[in-house]
Each structure stands twice: as structure tokens, then as C-alpha cells.
Amino acid sequence: MLFIHANARGKGIGKLLVEFVINNLKINKVHVNEHNEQAIGFYKHLGFKIISRSPKDAFSKPYPVLHMQL
Q1: I want to staple 68 with a disulfide (CB 3.0 to 4.6 A). Which of 48, 51, 55, 58 is the partner?
Q2: Which residues, in sequence order, are CB contacts of 6 under 8 Å at separation 6+?
Q3: Taking the CA atoms of the chain, what radius of gyration do you get in angstroms?
Q4: DSSP state of 38
Q5: What separation, in Å, do the N-terminal and C-terminal C-alpha atoms of the chain show?
Q6: 20: in domain
């Protein structure tokens, strides 16, 4: 999960962190709460596409999750 403090949003920190994990850790998938439209837009802006959806999160809670991939 990636959380950026509200005061630090829009300054490129999230993009730098995502680029780091893509380039150095070879991460190309993320899981995003379906109701978090800001996060979905952020990852789409970086080139991620929705590939699937789960009706529950990893803890079997009823929070739908979108699976996104570069």
C-alpha cells in the first residue's frame, strides 16, 4: 500500500516511489480499493490498467479491490 500525507500530495512523491519499485523491485501490479477513486486515477495516470476485480479484500472483508497491472 502506498499512503502519501495529504499535505505532500501533488508534489511527485508518489510517482517517484512507484517508479522506484517498478524499476528496482520489478513490481508491475497493484491492488486498489474500488472506492478509492483518487488512487485509481493516480495509477491509471502512471499507465496501470484494471485487469480484474475481487469482491472482497485480502482479509475477506467486503471491500471490493481492483487489480491493476502495467
Answers
A1: 48
A2: none
A3: 12
A4: H
A5: 16
A6: no
Count of domains in the chain?
1
Across 22-64, the runs of DSSP E, i.e. the strands, are: 29-33, 49-54
Which residues 6+ apart lie within 8 Å of 44 measured at CB? 68
CA dist 25 and 40 (Å) reads 21
Confirm whether 52 is domain-assigned. yes
pLDDT at residue 9 is higher than 90: no
Residues 11-55 pLDDT 10s: 999 999 999 999 999 999 999 999 999 999 999 999 999 999 999
Instruction: Please check whether residue 17 lies inside any domain of the structure.
Output: no
